[in-house]
Structures are given as structure tokens and as C-alpha cells.
Write a structure and sequence with these properties.
The protein has 350 residues and is α+β, with helices and mostly antiparallel strands. The protein contains eleven helices and nine strands. It starts with a strand and ends in a 5-residue tail after the last helix.
Length: 350
């Protein structure tokens, strides 16, 4: 394991839930430089998760409070979301090694714990499955003993170099075997999560959608008349996959971002995709394209309708529990939908 000196801080690393006067972690340390160098060229990032994610050059993304640290198919950082008071010290209670970054929200004590891998794990289509399964088993075991959020997608993390958070940084890198020494791996840690296909279990929901979406895009790009058509085809496919293959679906804004990224990259390189015989794939006919677009629109409408119904039912349940009078106007305000939409499409829910 490669170790360098700890970045100095004004508080005890074993008790990071202390309000400092300012974030004293220097920005030019080797661990921060390494974090920046390891970023994707255009990572997802945002200052407010409720407004969704944007793709920006990493020179701009590093200024955001949330950022994507890993490439879609290269895992350099293992991340854990611990949502409880004094979460920054949870690794001590769990008997785990010191993280590379402990990124604390001082408003509530919640934290992201980030471990940097000395040898990254590749998730390419032809990558060896054993390191991927080993990585995923370690990730499950660590999340379990930390009491971390098991539904955390690991796409976005609190940016350790952003002044919104109080960060403890240690120039530590670990091999997978070193991390595994701190936990007892059982067969259950190698089992895929419910609702996720076994062959994509180790990738996480975002990587899984990216993987199945890009392959579908390669098969579909010929015969289309532009990037927008390719986006519609890919989005329709992965929005359906997202709704049916995961125990908990990703938010629509993330599905949109993944489809947009795939369609842009694939369309710019569309001449490179050939079938196994070396000839270009058969062009999609106008009728086939029309059917794909109809199916995409149908899938999107069904997903959005189901999501809206869920919000309305939740609002109705809340009114019933609180003994409040149920009116269409009241439910519309609570659910964040228009009264007209409730009257036209969702009256059957009352």
C-alpha cells in the first residue's frame, strides 16, 4: 500500500463532526492533484442535486460541490454514503482502514467516505470478471459494516476539494486485497442485488444503463437521420430497462443524461461500427424507425404516468393519515402536479 503524509487539519480525524472556522485543507496537495488528474475529462457535476446533473469539462466541474470521480468503465475510487450523525468516524467504529477522503456535511454530520485504489478495476466488455466480482463483494461488505446507504449509485460524490464540505484528506491508496483484509467476505457479498441482472451486478445502476445503452446504440445507429433520432431510440430503450431491471429505478434526469452522452458519442463515431462480417449493419427502414420512435414515446409516457400516480397516491395517503379533507386542489399542491391534470387523467385515484 502506498502511503504519504496526512494533510493537516485543525480537528481530530477521529471526530470530524466539529465546526471549523474554515476548510483548512490545502488545495495543492498530492492527494488533491491526483484526484483532479483521475477525473473523467467531462464528468457529471452539480451544485444542487435537486436540479439534476450537468456534464462539464473537469476544469469547471471541479468547482462544483458534487462531482463524478470515476470513468464509466474504470473504478479508481470506492465511495460510501453514510447518513447519520458523526458519520465521518464510522470507519473507526467499523474497524476499517482510514479512507483517502472523509467528506463531511457539517450541517448534519453525514459523510462520504472515499477509498482510492492503487490498481484501478476495469469494467470494459472484455475485462476479467473476477476483479469486478471481488470489487463488488468488498463494496457490499464495507457498506454493510459502515451502515452506508445500500442504494447509493456511486456515480456522484461530495467533491472533496469543494469548500462546501469539511474534508479530511490522507494520501492513501489501497489494493483490493488490502481492503478485503478488514472484512469477512461471505457468499452473500457476491450475490447481485435483487432486480439487477447477474452479468451486470458489479457495475452499479448508472454503469449498467450506460453499458446496455451503448451496445443498443451501436446496433441502432445506422439508418437514423441524426443524433436526436438516436437519442430517442436509446432513451426509449434504457428508460424501459431502468423501470424493469432494477429494484430501485434511477431518477429520470440521470437516465436522460446517460442517453444524451451515449447518443452524442456514438453519432460522432457512427462510421466506426461494423458487424462481425466487416460490413456495415443493415439500415433501419422508415417503418422500423417509426415503430422504434412510437415504442420509445410509449415507454416514456408509461414511466412518467406511473411516477405521477405514485406521487398522487402518496399525497392522498398523507391527507388520510393527518385527517385532512381530500380535494383535487389540495392533492395537486401536495403532489406537485396541476389540478387540471388530476381532473383529466387521475380522478380514478380518489
Amino acid at each position: 500500500m502506498k502511503r504519504v503524509a496526512c494533510i493537516k487539519s485543525t480537528v481530530n480525524p477521529s471526530n470530524p463532526h466539529v465546526s471549523p472556522s474554515l476548510n483548512t485543507v490545502p488545495s495543492r496537495s498530492s492527494v488533491y492533484s491526483r484526484f483532479f488528474d483521475n477525473l473523467p475529462l467531462k464528468p457529471y457535476c452539480t451544485n444542487d442535486l435537486s436540479y439534476g446533473l450537468k456534464i462539464r469539462p473537469k476544469e469547471k466541474a471541479i468547482r462544483m460541490s458534487y462531482i463524478q470521480p470515476n470513468f464509466p468503465f474504470i473504478i479508481i475510487y470506492l465511495m460510501f454514503d453514510v447518513d447519520r450523525d458523526e458519520a465521518g468516524a464510522s470507519w473507526i467504529d467499523a474497524g476499517l482502514p482510514k479512507p483517502t477522503f472523509i467528506v463531511v456535511n457539517l450541517a448534519n454530520g453525514h459523510a462520504h467516505l472515499i477509498y482510492e485504489l492503487l490498481t484501478p478495476v476495469l469494467l470494459w466488455e472484455n475485462a476479467s470478471p473476477k476483479p469486478i466480482a471481488y470489487l463488488d463483494a468488498i463494496r457490499r461488505a464495507y457498506a454493510q459494516v459502515l451502515g452506508a446507504d445500500l442504494g447509493y449509485s456511486s456515480l456522484i460524490t461530495k467533491n472533496p476539494s469543494h469548500r462546501t464540505w469539511y474534508t479530511f484528506a490522507y494520501s492513501l491508496q489501497y489494493e483490493l486485497g488490502e481492503l478485503a483484509d478488514y472484512v469477512s467476505l461471505s457468499q452473500s457479498h457476491y450475490k447481485p442485488a435483487r432486480g439487477i441482472r447477474e452479468d451486470y451486478a458489479a457495475l452499479g445502476r448508472n454503469c449498467t444503463l450506460f453499458e446496455v445503452g451503448r451496445i443498443y446504440a451501436y446496433d441502432s445507429v445506422y439508418g437514423l437521420n441524426g443524433q436526436e433520432e438516436l437519442y430517442a431510440v436509446v432513451y426509449g430503450y434504457i428508460v424501459s430497462y431502468n423501470a424493469t431491471e432494477f429494484a430501485e429505478s434511477l431518477p429520470e434526469r440521470e437516465v436522460h443524461g446517460i442517453a444524451q452522452s451515449i447518443s452524442q458519442w456514438t453519432w460522432e463515431r457512427r462510421e466506426n461500427f461494423k458487424n462481425r462480417s466487416g460490413r456495415h449493419r443493415r439500415k433501419t427502414t422508415d417503418e422500423e424507425l417509426k415503430q422504434k420512435q412510437i415504442q420509445s414515446a410509449h415507454n416514456t409516457a408509461e414511466i412518467k404516468r406511473a411516477a405521477t400516480e405514485a406521487k398522487i397516491k402518496k399525497a392522498v395517503d398523507k391527507f388520510l393519515r393527518e385527517g385532512r379533507k381530500i380535494t383535487k386542489a389540495g392533492i395537486a399542491r401536495e403532489a406537485g402536479v396541476s389540478r387540471q391534470a388530476i381532473s383529466t387523467y387521475y380522478s380514478h385515484l380518489f
